[in-house]
Amino acid sequence: MILLPYSLLLLFLVFFLIDTKKAILVAVMIRPVIDCFYEAKYAFAGIKPTEFLGFLLPTLVCAKILLSRNHSFTRSKFSFLWIVFIFVQLFGTVLIVTVGDDAMLGLNYYYRAFNGFIGFFIFQEFFKSRDEFRVLLLVHLAAGLVPLGMSVYQNILGGTIRSEATIGGLVRNIGFYHDAYTLRLYCFQTLAAGILYWSYFLSGIKFLTRSLLVVMGGIAGFTIYKIFSKAGYLVLLEWLMVWYTVQRKFVKIAAIALVMVCAAVVFQEKLVVLETLDTVYSKEVGAFHGKEKSDRLFQGRVGTWKVAMKEYSELPLYMQIVGDGSPHTGAHNDFLRALLGTGFVGLFLYLMLLGAIGWRVLLNCWRVPSPLNTMALMLMGMWLIDAMGLVPGAYPGYQIFVWGFVGLALRGVEGLSAPGEVTLEIAAETEPQSTLGRGELPC
Predict the structure, then answer these.
(1) 48, 59, 200, 239 — which has fewest CB within 10 A?
(2) Is 168 left (phi over 0), alpha (psi -120 to 50) or beta?
(3) Sign of CA dihedral 337, 341, 343, 349
(4) Where is the O-antigen ligase-related domain (predicted)?
C-alpha cells in the first residue's frame, strides 16, 4: 500500500520531464489519492506523500515559469501583490526557523502559502485555449471519481472506512481522508468542473454525458449534505444564489425558494433534511435565543478566537507587526491565522489581495457574466465563507483549485464561449479592440 503514493509521485515527475502541462493534469488527477496517505506511517525520510506533492508541484512549476520564454509571473495586474505577499511569508518562515528552531516546520509553513501563489498562475499560464480548458475540466471530473466513490461506498452502500462524530451525535463518513474538509473540497471541485463543462461543452443533445454529470453532481451534493458542515451548507447556498443571480435567472431563484419554503411548511415534521439543519445549527439558534453562550458558537470556535486575540494583544509590539513565529494552522479562522503568524503587515496584505482580486472578479461578472467569471465569483465567496471558520490558506489542494480557476477567469481563455456569447473569431472581425470574445475580461 505504501508504494502507491510514491508510484504516483514518480509518475508525476516522469510526466514533468515530458510535458509540464501533462504533469499538472497528472497532479490534479492523483491529489485525491495522495491525500489519503496523510499519516506519518507513510512518510519517507520524515516527509509524507502529501507534503512531497505540496513541495514538488509548486517548485517545479515555478522553475518552469521562470526559465521559459512563453510563461511569466508578470502578465497579471495582480502579480505585484502576489509577489509582495509571498515575500512577506518569508518573514514568518524565518521566525519559525529561528524562534521555533524548526526548519521543517518553517518550510512546511512557507510552502502552504507558496501553493496559493503558484495556484494563481498555474492554470492561466498552461491552459490558455478552449481545447486545453476542456481537458482541464475533464481531468478534474475524473479526479472526483475517487472521493465520490468513497462516499457512495459509505453513505449509500453502507460500507465502513472512516467516520467522525460531530454536533448533535451526527456522524460524518469521510473516507480515507484526514478530515471532512478534504472530502468536501473534492465534492465542490467536481461540482465546479461539471458546471463549467456543462456550460461550455454540452451544446446539442448529449444524453449520456449530461446524465453522467447529473449523477456525479447529485452524489457530490449528497456527500456535502452528509458531511453535516455549517460552512458546506452556506457555500452551497452561496453558489446557488451567485450562479442564478449573475446568469440573470431570477425566475429559477424564485422557483427554488418557493419550493423550499413550501416543502418546509408542508413537511416540517417529516423532512429529515430539516431535522439535520436544525441539529447542525442548534448552537447558533440557541445563542440567538440566549440559551447558549456565545463562546460555544461554531462548535466552540468563537471561544478559541477570543483566547487567540487575547494572546495576540499580549505579544510584544514587533511580534504584533510581523508575527510570532508559529504557523497557527489550528486557528480555525484564516484571517486570525494570518494575523498571528505574519502580524498586522501580513494580515493587511492578505486582505488587500482578497479585496483587489475579489473586486476585479465582481466587475468582470457585472460586465461579462460568463460561466467562468461566475464560477470565479462563486469560488471567492466559498473562500471567504471557509476563511471564517477554517484555514483554506493552509490547504495546498484547496488553493490550487480556487486560485487556479480564479486566475484563469481573470486571464481569459482564447476561443471560449458559452451558448449565446460572442466567440473570439467573430469578435476579432466585428470589434478589433474588444476582449469580450474570450467570454472574460483581461486582468
Answers:
(1) 59
(2) left
(3) negative
(4) 221-351
280-333 per-position pLDDT tens digit: 655 555 555 556 666 556 666 788 888 888 888 888 898 888 888 778 888 889
Gap between the Cα atoms of 382 and 322, Å rounded: 28
Half-sphere exposure of 256 (CA within 13 A, CB side): 11
Q: Are 368 and 438 in contact (CB under 8 A)?
A: no
Distance between start and end Cα atoms, the chain: 45
Instruction: Count Cβ atoms below 10 Å from residue 390 Cβ, excluding itself.
Output: 22
| pTM for the model | 0.87
Residue 22: its H or E element: helix 20-34
Between 278 and 167, where is the model more confident? 167
Q: Which three cell numbers stand for residue 169?
A: 451525535
β-pair type (171-173, 163-165): antiparallel
Which of the 8 DSSP states describes residue 165? E
Angle at alpha carbon of residue 245, lines to 147 and 413, rounded to 5° = 65
Cα separation of 227 and 244, whole Å? 25
**What is 334-390 written as a DSSP string?**
HHHHHHHHHHHHHHHHHHHHHHHHHHHHHHHHHH---HHHHHHHHHHHHHHHHHHHS
Across the range 98-118, mean pLDDT stands at 86
Reduce the DSSP state of residue 426 to 3 states and report it: helix
CA distances from 422 to 38, 411, 433, 437 (A): 46, 17, 14, 5
Find the helix packing angle between 79-98 and 103-126, rounded to 10°: 160
Reply yes or no on whether the pLDDT at 205 is more than 80.
Answer: no
Residues in the chain: 443
What pLDDT, on a 0 to 100 scale, did the predictor assign at position 437?
A: 37
Read off the pLDDT of residues 399-431 as tens digits, 9 standing for 90 and up.
Answer: 999 999 999 999 999 988 655 444 433 333 333
Place of cell 486557528: 331
